[in-house]
Amino acid sequence: MTRAFSFSVKAQDGAARTGVIATQRGDIRTPAFMPVGTQATVKAMFVEDVAAAGADIILGNTYHLMLRPGAERIAKLGGLHSFMHWDKPILTDSGGYQVMSLAKLRKISEEGVAFQSHLDGARVVLRPNRAIEVQCLLGADIQMALDECTPFPASRAEARVSLDLSMRWAERSKAAFEAMSAPGQALFGIVQGSVYPDLREDSAKTLEGIGFPGYAVGGLAVGEGHEAMLQTLEATTPFLPEDKPRYLMGVGTPLDILEAVAQGIDMFDCVMPTRSGRHGQAFTWGGRLNLRNAQYAEDLSPLDPESACPAAQYSRAYLHHLVKAGEILGAMLVSYANVQFYQELMARARTAIAGGTFADFVEDVRRRYAGPENTA
Amino acid sequence: MTRAFSFSVKAQDGAARTGVIATQRGDIRTPAFMPVGTQATVKAMFVEDVAAAGADIILGNTYHLMLRPGAERIAKLGGLHSFMHWDKPILTDSGGYQVMSLAKLRKISEEGVAFQSHLDGARVVLRPNRAIEVQCLLGADIQMALDECTPFPASRAEARVSLDLSMRWAERSKAAFEAMSAPGQALFGIVQGSVYPDLREDSAKTLEGIGFPGYAVGGLAVGEGHEAMLQTLEATTPFLPEDKPRYLMGVGTPLDILEAVAQGIDMFDCVMPTRSGRHGQAFTWGGRLNLRNAQYAEDLSPLDPESACPAAQYSRAYLHHLVKAGEILGAMLVSYANVQFYQELMARARTAIAGGTFADFVEDVRRRYAGPENTA
């Protein structure tokens, strides 16, 4: 029997909460960080190591996968889980964000968004029902309604128009999902409204009216800055149902994440651990390290003595050498260590919330990340 | 107590033999294939997987390591084994071959070879005693005498001059090794002589006169072609002591290797499994596969159903996708599968020699590698 999608909060500490999202492919402990598996791979990592790092769920990108190898092809090959040998939950985005950031000749209309593939120039139209169809073909456990990620900055009027379109698309996405999805799958709505508190409130209430098993906050981490992001989040989360998971899309640094957890966010995704890993930037319990720096050339201390990750046991000197020499193993080891650091961060956050010490934990991490290498 | 370097032949089948090289860091089962770890990493592979694939020994490149991160630095950091977390034997080349293929403004004299680093243009002189010093600083278990890899083609007169220089360097290398090496380490001499049988014989005898615990055949696989390589080998191996390991440098394809084993060669190294792996070329028990080919886009069969390698269990369709998308995971998986294929090839060769069926085994592999994708 298919296990129904559900969410339960186990403990709260202020607005921060820890709980479990139950899915047909396993439990997701929240607050959760989802490593990004853009093209059916978490970049430079064996999928076994993504699980060993502690990830309960990964994210796949609809835009990339629909263009290559194609959603119909992945379905024919048995779905995304089987294709990439990952049997835990997968969340897919709707494709809307990456159409806007990667595709050429984009044109948004009521119908959807038309664009040219960045790979071969092919003309593609992504409509709300196609976005859901693609996610169903991939076999995503958690799917996202198609939205327009309102560009930043946007005037109030522009944000209103964009938001209203996203809300109509959310409704169409839900109808498509109800027609096409498999038992146990879930569709999340996405709150927009740029940095305008009343628009965010309006969006949250509209989505709750439509009714989703989870709600995402979109349109942040798009250049508005840390303070504006937190303020917008403050104006949004109080209007999201308490008994449903809340997902802040595309965020972020360790402190961004903890500050959002403090406001009641449950789920995160970001390319930061893997992208930084490919460029020799390490996240550790001692703060951020740029392994290219000459200071590490003869540093025999392990990358992160506090981490349990096998990759973090290599010396900084060795990793410095690999990064300087452009060796793939450097990307492999630092990506693995970073993904595991993010998972350990979430695990410690969950423990702190359960123990009622979350504020102290945030201050502890703030001190660890106060060094000179910690500017993003 | 340090274990002495030794070699024992366990079984012979024609000229092919199987045995064990015992070193202070463990046994090397022969015939052995050594994956190449140029810059203190077997490219795109975790070192644990190199061991899991079955490798008893890896090769490190003196030229690369002396330039970056530097031999003195590696020594200061505890030696190459500890630096890269590989505790089994390491063989290092002398650097001579790569000076000729990579460095700029090379100038060979009686003293040694002067060149400009390909990294930063620094002026470096590699003399026989410095080549040994570098290998001792790295902590290599098996070291190679500095030689000039005679370019191909070379006239008989050129080959003679080059060979004589290499023989004088071999003598100086041995003297340096005796002065500098640690207990348990071994130095091999390298036979040169281009494609001239009498020069090869002369070189082999000269080296035996100097006396080494192992002998390499150098100056092959440099453009002379498969037949000339085999003929030169036939003119060389009979003059190499039977009770010492014989190492054919830089070879080669699966069939090159088996044909050399048939002539009595015990050790091999080649970048082919890893370099091919990074370019989507797979070696399997069904022959060579170019994973970029569109024919694999929907091929759900595992890369190599006959291989025990975890990486070879992924579908060809998935690997095709990763390779086409330029994903690092594609390089990781195909490199792992290739390195393990080469190890499985050597394991089957050892079993066949012990069982007296080596000729049949070579014919079996020849049939497997007769397909259209098997041209190098």
From TrEMBL, chains A, B:
This enzyme catalyses:
7-aminomethyl-7-carbaguanine + guanosine(34) in tRNA = 7-aminomethyl-7-carbaguanosine(34) in tRNA + guanine
Q: EC?
A: 2.4.2.29
What is the protein's given name? Answer: Queuine tRNA-ribosyltransferase
Q: Where does substrate bind?
A: 93-97, 147, 192, 219
* A Pfam family of this chain: TGT
| Single biological process term from Gene Ontology | tRNA queuosine(34) biosynthetic process
According to its UniProt entry, this protein's organism is Methyloceanibacter methanicus
Where do the record's region annotations for RNA binding lie? 250-256, 274-278
Q: Which UniProt keywords apply?
A: Glycosyltransferase, Queuosine biosynthesis, Transferase, tRNA processing
Catalytic residues (positions) = 93 (proton acceptor), 269 (nucleophile)
Question: One cellular component GO annotation, for this chain's record?
Answer: cytosol
Residue ranges annotated for the tRNA-guanine(15) transglycosylase-like domain, each copy included = 15-369
